[in-house]
Amino acid sequence: MSSASPGWDLAVGFAEQAIARHAGLGLRPIGAGAELLSQRSLFTDSWTRRQVSMGGHCRLLRTADGWCAVHLPRRDDVELLPAWLGVHDSADEVAWEELTEVLSLRPTSEVVRSGQELGLAISALPNGEDEQLRDRGTTNPARPWIQRRVGTRRSDASLDGARVVDLSSLWAGPLCSRILTEAGAKVVKVESSTRPDASRDGDRALFDWLHADQEFLSIPLEEPSGVDELAALLEQADVVIEGSRPRALDRLGIVPAEIVAKRSGTVWLSITAYGRCGPWRDWVGFGDDAAVAGGLVDLDASGVPSFVGDAVADPLTGLLAAAIVADAVGRGGGVTIDVALREVARSAATGARVVW
C-alpha cells in the first residue's frame, strides 16, 4: 500500500518495531512487517470498497453523531439484528441498506452499547476522551499491555523446548504461537471438540501456515472430564496463549493467576478485543472492528473513515505479543500479560514508539 494510506504506513511502522524487538530477543524472522500484515490477503490499491472490510462482514456506517463498525461474521449475529435494531435479514444476507438507514438516526453510544449487550462486535470510532484506557490504566500508547507478576521466576527459562498451550483462534494468538514455534517452542493447539477454530473454514493455507509443526488436541470442554484434562495441561505449560473473554474462563473455573502461581516461570498471555479488565472486559471484537475502536483508520478530507488493511489489529497484536512473551520468558516468567487488540491498534494509530 502506498503513502496514500497513512494508516497503513503507521501499521507497518508499528509491526516493524515488533519485528526489530524479535531480532533483539533472538526470535527468527518470518517476514517483513507489510508482508505479515497482509498475510491473509494481499493488500493492493485495487481494493476500493474502503467502508467494507476485505472479508466483507464488517462495515463502517454513520450514526447520528459519528461512525461505528458493524461486524457480523456469523449467522448467529445476523439472527440478532431484529432484537438489536428491528432490522430483518433477507435470504440469509444482511439488509445493509436498512441497517444503514436505522443507524443514521441513532447515537453512537446507544448503538454500540445495545449491540454489545447482545454479543455483537460493534465498535465506535473514538471521539474525545478515552474512558476505557483510563479505567484500565493503559493510557500510555507506548505500552499497550498490562503485565502483572503473580508467580515466581525461573532462572533457566527459555523458549527453546518450552511447552506452549495455545487456546487461541483466528489470527492474533496463532500468529504469536507461530513465531514462538520458530523459536523452538513445542506448541499444542487446543480446540473445543464442539467449537473448533473458525478459521479452519476460511483460508486454509493461512491456517496451515500459522499452525505448521504444532500438535493438535481436541478436548470436550462442555464436559467435566474435558475441563479437568485442560486444567492438567495448563498446569504443565511454560506458556499459555488464550483469547477468551474473562467470563468464558470463569465458567470453566480457570483462573490465570492461580495457574501461573502453581509453577515457577509460567507466562500466561491473554489476547482479547478489549482486555481482561476494565468496563469493556466482556465486549466482543475482531481485527477489523477493534482497529476502528482504536482509531486506526484513514480519514478523507471530509472526515469519512476507511478501513486500514485486512483485520489489521490481529497481525499487529500477534507480532507484538510474541515479543512480549519472549521478553517475559527471558526474564524468568511468572507473569500474566493482558493485551487488547483495540489498544494495540490505538498505539499504532498514534505512531507510538513502544517502551519495553
How many structural domains in the coordinates? 2
CATH class of the largest domain: Alpha Beta
The strands making up the biggest β-sheet line up spatially as 4-12-9-8-5-6-7
- Along the chain, the helix and strand elements come as HHEEHHHHEHEEHEHEHEHHEHEEHEH
Tally of individual helices: 15
- Report the strand count: 12
Unreliable parts: 42-47
GO molecular function: catalytic activity
InterPro entries: CoA-transferase_III, CoA-Trfase_fam_III, CoA-Trfase_III_dom_1_sf
Write up this protein.
This protein is α/β, with parallel strands linked by helices. It has 2 domains: 1-47 and 137-356, Rossmann fold, CATH 3.40.50; 49-125, formyl-coa transferase, domain 3, CATH 3.30.1540. It contains 15 helices and 12 strands. Helix 1 (6-24) packs parallel to helix 14, helix 13 packs across helix 15 and helix 14 packs across helix 15 (341-349). The chain is globular and about 60 Å long. GO terms for molecular function: catalytic activity. InterPro entries: CoA-transferase_III (IPR050509), CoA-Trfase_fam_III (IPR003673), CoA-Trfase_III_dom_1_sf (IPR023606).
What tags apply to this protein structure?
15 helices, 2 domains, formyl-coa transferase, domain 3, 3-stranded antiparallel β-sheet, alpha/beta, single chain, 356 residues, Rossmann fold, 12 strands
